[in-house]
Amino acid sequence: MAEVTSGPAPYIYVSTRLRVRRAKLLRAEEYNRMLNMSLPEITRYIEELEYKTEIDELAPSFSGVDLVEVALSWNLAKEYQNVLALTPGSMAGFTAEYLRRWDIANVLTILRGRLQGFKPGKIKEVLIPAGALDRTVLDRIVTEESPERIAEGLRGTHLYQVVERELGPAVESGSFARFENELYKQYFADLIRAARAGIKGGSEFLQYIQLEIDITNMQNLWRLRAGGAIEEVRDYLIPGGRIPVDELNRLATAETVDEIVDSLKKRTNISALQDAIEELRCGCSVRQIENRLTRFKLEQMDRMSRRYPFSISPVLVYLERKRYEVYNLRAIARGKAANLAPERIQEYLVI
Amino acid sequence: MVDPVSASTVLTPEMITASQAGLKAVGAGLAVGLTGVGTGLAEMCIGTAAVGATAENRDMFGLALIFTVIPETIVIFGLVVALLLLF
């Protein structure tokens, strides 16, 4: 059968499909309704939505919160791979680059799980094979006994360089924070390189990456300030955003929040970011600020997808929104399993 | 030898009528042809989006079909112009 591979048609097709899928994602009132349900009711509720196949398939092997969690992970991985298969040309390249974030998450989950003595079967339940490392590779490395063997199993992959350099010191110190940060720095550097490679649609992709870096840096800055780790701020900031790392590093030592906000607003001439910076002035807890910044990022991505309707933007909007839907459902399921009050669970939701 | 000037300038009324009819036919052809191309270009984008939307939600089929055929009006205008030219 003839396939249309050039012109705007494939981009219009994919953008429309993902816009429809995005419209089908759960709305705020549905989350609010779920907050007042019990865990079995939530399981039944999501079974009637897009998660039916996974819940039915996994119901004989799992129950309770584990069933919800594994079904959500499977659905997310399936959905991401499906989107990757749908996207044409340069869009597919950018989508694959974006999805490599899940490789980092999976490798870190495997390393942390194995070092804490979890069995491979238990770790496999929480892996989301949505990136370049497919289920076969992950199944192989999850059975390895030592971190060195896991690192060896990643030879030839895009993560190997950083893993080889940083894993030894991370295992010795017992903290994976720096290792994780280095992996994400490499990930964002790779994304920027892909966006600047001169491929059509790269500028829209670059706008998203810069937004993501700025928001992540602001979240990290707040988290580190709250934790009193001001000296280490520079190590945790990701270069490549619109707000320079030097500026953020200098502001880490500022006395008050107003000082930081005013200084950032003076240095930033991008109206969209000005709104995000203003959010920091709310005087809320670190979690609330992180939540607000994430919501701002999603709204800004929505705006970008309307400005560039047939670009990578609608694809990224769907992927990010889907990720937060799964994140929210998992938070509700875990919260309900731990008997938390609905108001408490609501604080964790990104709606 | 035939005088080239006198040979090319002699036009009979039959020739003029035939020439007018020919140009009308060319105009009619252009009216339908160009509007057809315009309609095709417009329908390409709408049709692609319509197929995408219907693939995700079958309930959209009726609405998507209506949106897809809206640019048909352009080629109908062309057809009307062509018919007015010819008859």
What would you note in describing this structure?
The complex is a heterodimer of chains A (351) and B (87). By secondary structure, chain A is an all-alpha fold. Chain A has a domain at 202-310. Helix content of chain A is 72%, strand content 0%. Chain A has 20 helices and no strands. Chain A is globular, with a radius of gyration of 21 Å. The N and C termini of chain A lie far apart (43 Å). The mean pLDDT of chain A is 86. Chain B has a domain at 32-87. Chain B is rod-shaped and about 70 Å long. Chain B is built from four helices and no strands. In chain B, helix 2 runs antiparallel to helix 4. Chain B is mainly α. The interface between A and B is medium-sized, with 13 and 11 residues.
Q: Specify the overall morphology of chain A.
A: globular
**What percent of the residues of chain A sit in helical stretches (DSSP H or I)?**
over 70%
- Portion in strands of chain A: under 5%
* Tally of alpha and pi helices of chain A: 20
**Which sheet architecture does the biggest sheet of chain B show?**
none
Termini separation of chain A (Å)?
43 Å
Beta strand count of chain B: 0
Look at the structure and give the mean pLDDT of chain B.
Answer: 90
Question: What's a quick, concise take on this entry?
Answer:
The complex is a heterodimer of chains A (351) and B (87). Chain A is mainly α.
Write the layout of secondary structure elements.
The complex is a heterodimer of chains A (351) and B (87).
Chain A (H helix, E strand, L loop, with lengths): L8 H16 L3 H8 L3 H9 L4 H7 L5 H23 L2 H11 L1 H15 L4 H7 L8 H8 L4 H7 L6 H14 L3 H19 L6 H26 L5 H4 L8 H7 L5 H11 L3 H9 L6 H22 L4 H26 L4 H5 L5
Helix pairs in contact in A: 1-19, 5-6, 5-19, 6-12, 7-8, 9-10, 10-11, 11-12, 12-13, 13-18, 17-18, 18-19
Chain B lengths: L3 H6 L3 H44 L4 H9 L2 H15 L1
Helix pairs in contact in B: 2-3, 2-4
Offer a few descriptive terms.
heterodimer, A: 351 residues, mainly alpha, B: 87 residues, 4 helices, 0% strand, rod-shaped
